UniProtKB/TrEMBL annotation:
Signal peptide as annotated in the record: 1-24
SUPFAM superfamilies: Periplasmic binding protein-like I
Gene3D superfamilies listed in its UniProt record: 3.40.50.2300
Similarity-based family: Belongs to the leucine-binding protein family.
Species this chain originates from: Denitromonas iodatirespirans
Pfam family, one: Peripla_BP_6
Signal in keyword set: yes
The name this protein goes by in its record: ABC transporter substrate-binding protein
Residues in Leucine-binding protein domain copies: 26-360
UniProt keyword Signal present: yes
Keywords linked to the UniProt accession: Signal
Length: 377
């Protein structure tokens, strides 16, 4: 009788195990540019996210399940972003998406309805465009400050320096237009003057016409509203043309790439907004943690930057939310966990979400490239 009971209990246990979902890994999806005009940005995001996930796995993952980052290269092409996002969701069954790259790319994804159809959260899209934040999208959780906040920080910096006439170079796409809109509004609030507007093709290094248009207006300061490789080319062209006025760019750039493209002499003095702490220069615990992980688990050929930090923080947010979920982790439970986060301290970097507030941070700083080619804050 006892033997029969044991057999029945064993069979019941086996049947229970058979109906439990088996998942070898918890997949996280990233779609970004790793090989075209924004490659330095995309690779930094990927590296930061990979370090956060590697550390989580070293600590045992989530209830014994390990995380896996799947990164797909869209080459900054909107059609490829849409195709790869859908393909990645269907093929890899991710629990969340981190760090789409680009205003037009992110905008197309939101318009496509892919996130709603998959019931999946997008954490930390690499864009500060205000029109992608209002009205609030319940599946999108922004990490960085908005472009309007960045531009306003630059304009205020110029105004404090006595500069009244400011020019702008930007790209001909939704990203560039959002920068220009914020620029005009910020100048108007302070009674400052627009002194030249140069527009370059999207993602192109052909910036000569844009630089010439701004130079013709003889500005006292210039905002460089480009991203990735076009920025270094624009700075080099401005220097070669003899325009010796303060120039400040947005966070969507990489100082190392700018110095490499423009040269140390041309890049010296160029200012840049940071919407993430620079792990090379900050004393916050999260910067110390990223540096330690880079040394212990990372790739010696990679360099740390605020963009690395952005990928790191987006992944850390995903991991924090996942750890708070009760029961089996699902896309909807993860989204709901992010929504309920409230004020959250990520080792000194503060984030706040609620059902009516998905703009996680307003952090910003301005640094300048020094004589040695390094950012100084």
């Amino acid at each position: 009788m006892l033997r029969c009971r044991l057999i029945l209990l064993s069979l019941a246990a086996l049947l229970a195990m058979a109906v439990l979902p088996v998942r070898a890994e918890i997949t996280v999806l990233q779609v970004a540019d790793y090989s075209a005009s924004r490659a330095s940005l995309g690779r930094a995001l990927r590296y930061g996210a990979s370090l956060a996930i590697a550390e989580a796995n070293r600590q045992g993952g989530l209830h014994g399940e390990k995380f896996k980052l799947v990164a797909l290269d869209d080459r900054y092409e909107v059609a490829e972003t849409l195709r790869l996002l859908k393909e990645g969701i269907d093929k890899h069954d991710p629990v969340a998406v981190v760090n789409l790259l680009g205003t037009a790319n992110t905008g197309a994804v939101l318009q496509s309805g892919l996130l709603d159809a998959a019931q999946i959260a997008l954490i930390g899209p690499y864009t500060g465009a205000d029109h992608l934040r209002v009205p609030l999208n319940p599946r999108v959780f922004h990490v960085r400050a908005s472009y309007a906040e960045e531009v306003d920080r630059i304009v205020q910096h110029f105004a404090n320096s006595g500069i009244r006439r400011i020019g702008i170079v930007h790209e001909a796409d939704p990203f560039g237009e959002s920068i220009h809109t914020a620029f005009v509004a910020s100048l108007a609030r302070r009674g400052l003057q627009v002194a030249g507007r140069g527009v370059s093709p999207r993602g192109s290094v052909d910036v000569s016409g844009a630089v010439a248009a701004v130079m013709a207006a003889d500005p006292q300061g210039v905002i460089i509203g480009t991203a990735g490789s076009p920025t270094g080319v624009a700075i080099k062209a401005i220097h070669a043309a003899g325009l010796r006025v303060p120039a400040v760019g947005l966070s969507v750039n990489d100082a190392t790439q700018i110095v490499k493209t423009a040269g140390v002499e041309a890049a010296r003095g160029f200012g840049m907004v940071a919407v993430m702490p620079d792990p090379n220069a900050c004393a916050l615990p999260i910067c110390q943690e990223l540096r330690a992980l880079h040394a212990a688990l990372g790739d010696a050929t990679e360099t740390l930057s605020p963009n690395t930090m952005e990928g790191f923080i987006a992944a850390r947010l995903m991991l924090r939310a996942a750890a708070s979920v009760r029961g089996a982790l699902t896309r909807q439970k993860l989204r709901d966990a992010l929504d309920a986060m409230g004020p959250t301290d990520l080792s000194g970097f503060l984030i706040r979400y609620s059902p009516t507030h998905h703009n996680g941070s307003s952090y910003s700083d301005i640094g300048v490239i020094g004589a040695g080619g390094h950012m100084m804050y």
